[in-house]
Amino acid sequence: DTGVSQDPRHKITKRGQNVTFRCDPISEHNRLYWYRQTLGQGPEFLTYFQNEAQLEKSRLLSDRFSAERPKGSFSTLEIQRTEQGDSAMYLCASSLGGQRNVFGPGTRLTVL
Amino acid sequence: ILNVEQSPQSLHVQEGDSTNFTCSFPSSNFYALHWYRWETAKSPEALFVMTLNGDEKKKGRISATLNTKEGYSYLYIKGSQPEDSATYLCALPSGNTPLVFGKGTRLSVIA
After folding, report:
1. Helix, strand and coil percent figures for chain B, each rounded to 5
2. What is the pLDDT of residues A17-68, one digit of tens each?
3. Is the dihedral of CA A96, A101, A104, A107 positive or negative?
4. Which residue from A minimizes the CA distance to B94?
5. pLDDT surpasses 90 at A75
């Protein structure tokens, strides 16, 4: 297993556009997490899945954000009508149960 | 929301120096503490998961201690090398939030 992968690694978009990111977790991991990291801050929790069920969503996850994990494997995070404040590193992690989170390399989003 | 504080915010040391930094957290309702190392352009890498008061863990030149009664953990690096340059993050689970992270300590090791 090559670990957690994320695609794309970088995304530049114009304000108002929609963007979608993908995360492929470690195959035997049943939990998948999304975090966001902005300059000078640590990663902030957005949401997580156990298998295909979305179990928790942070108040940071506004109505413009939606995440799915349709078959309990890969996950997508979509941001609609992007704003400049959405510019951040979006990190995905996976784990087996609540054990150690293994992180992907992140997707860096820049909204112009 | 759990308040996780890390200090210092950044640190510059010479190659060969030993260094340490701190993660502070509320001592009530402690469950576990995670240390991560995050190098630029790479994935955050798990270093340690600590659960018991008095825990000491070691991985090569890096070690960590935990004091849950007073609410702090120390991360030590012995004989720093340029490849140790990274941001060191600590994180704790809190309620329904899998991990609450501190802002990190950015370490630069100068050759």
Report:
1. 5, 55, 40
2. 999 999 999 999 999 999 999 999 999 999 999 999 999 999 888 899 999 9
3. positive
4. A45
5. yes
| Pairing assessment for the beta strands B62-67 and B72-77 based on DSSP bridges | antiparallel
User: Is A48 at the interface with chain B, CB within 8 A?
Assistant: yes
Residue with tokens 């370490």: B107
Measured between alpha carbons, how far is B57 from B66 in angstroms, rounded to an integer?
A: 9
Judged by CB atoms closer than 8 Å, whether chains meet at B98 and A48 is answered as: yes
Looking from the CA of A70 toward its CB, the CA atoms found within 13 Å total 3
What is the interface size between A and B, counted as CB pairs within 8 Å? 54
The beta-carbon neighbor of B96 closest among A56, A99, A104 is A56
Taking the C-alpha atoms of A87, B5, B90 and B1 in order, what is their torsion angle to the nearest 10 degrees? -70
d(CA A90, CA A21): 9
User: Parallel, antiparallel, or unpaired: how do β-strands B105-110 and B10-14 relate?
Assistant: parallel
Alpha helix ranges (H) inside chain A = none
